[in-house]
Design goal:
This protein is elongated. It contains two helices and no strands. By secondary structure, the chain is mostly helical. The protein has a domain of about 30 residues. Helix content is about 85%, strand content about 0%.
């Protein structure tokens, strides 16, 4: 996505935004992993 932004705008993403987006991506991954783990445990005991 960073490369796409750079190709469209002609300039790179600022360091502050890159850090925010990376933290957001990690948060999304953790939420998805938590949901998957919850579904697995619920199926195991349900």
């Amino acid at each position: 996505m960073y490369y796409l932004w750079e190709a469209v705008t002609g300039r790179s993403v600022s360091d502050a935004w890159m850090e925010r987006l990376q933290r957001g991506g990690v948060a999304v991954l953790l939420v998805m992993m938590s949901i998957a783990l919850f579904n697995d445990v619920a199926r195991l005991f349900g």
